[in-house]
Amino acid sequence: xxxxxxxxxxxxxxxxxxxxxxxxxxxxxxxxxxxxxxxxxxxxxxxxxxxxxxxxxxxxxxxxxxxxxxxxxxxxxxxxxxxxxxxxxxxxxxxxxxxxxxxxxxxxxxxxxxxxxxxxxxxxxxxxxxxxxxxxxxxxxxxxxxxxxxxxxxxxxxxxxxxxxxxxxxxxxxxxxxxxxxxxxxxxxxxxxxxxxxxxxxxxxxxxxxxxxxxxxxxxxxxxxxxxxxxxxxxxxxxxxxxxxxxxxxxxxxxxxxxxxxxxxxxxxxxxxxxxxxxxxxxxxxxxxxxxxxxxxxxxxxxxxxxxxxxxxxxxxxxxxxxxxxxxxxxxxxxxxxxxxxxxx
Length: 345
Known about the structure:
The protein is an alpha+beta fold. It has helices spanning about 5-25, 35-40, 250-260, 265-280, 305, 325-340, and strands at about 40-45, 50, 60-65, 70-75, 75-85, 95-105, 115-120, 130-135, 145-150, 160-165, 170-175, 175-185, 200-205, 225-240, 280-290, 310-315. Residues about 1-5, about 10-15, about 25-30 and about 320-345 have low confidence and may be disordered.
């Protein structure tokens, strides 16, 4: 029999550990300079659905039955650190994708690079999920995606998501917690992103695949769907992507970037990453032996992770969710069951 007391205790302990991790990581993260919307970005598509705040520090992107919307950084960057605090749409969000990513597809159409954080909406009452991915030199047939759940409700408050991209490593962060690192190896060759990229933020209708394999579509009864971006950070060497030889000025910028605290994961950061990946990752291409009988060269097989996954790269057992969605769901069930005279066990 499932014990509510034990479940609540596990949830409490998980939150205490999370707070401890956040405190330790915040104290070691380099201070960054935030930009206003118009300092950092320009409209990409559907300007009528892009709404900057009066002080220009926040921008809201809308999806409605007419269109989604998107913005693009005003410059290209040769490596960098890119970050934003993002709040997801509430209500019924099935079929919706919110993306924060880097790409150069508009300049290098057939051999583009890309680093993705994609947030996948869900039906009302079920949690948002998100995934990270990497493409280099047009390697779209060799997607390197990982998928995760969250330990918080991303629709109630903004949370910070960041992408670090240097010549030697890539790190994805959530609220200063490193959740994934890709270290460049010789075996990756052109699969490692190395050409200048822009930074994008978008919201769009992905009804064909985003929720339950496309079974759940966007329900425009709940429009508009609004995602909010603020605390915008774009740090890197600004370049012209068409230059055959990049400016030597980038040498100093890249060295400065790689010297920042966020470019290297501390021992405490490693513990944080281990906590996140073993608790909230539910798919990893590195453990998908059906798709990749030989793991791609950058994969580091971690035994404690490997034991959690099937050969399909998916979890052996159903993930237990202990975040804010879980607590809210239990509270709602208790109220309903109390009215029906049913015990919540």
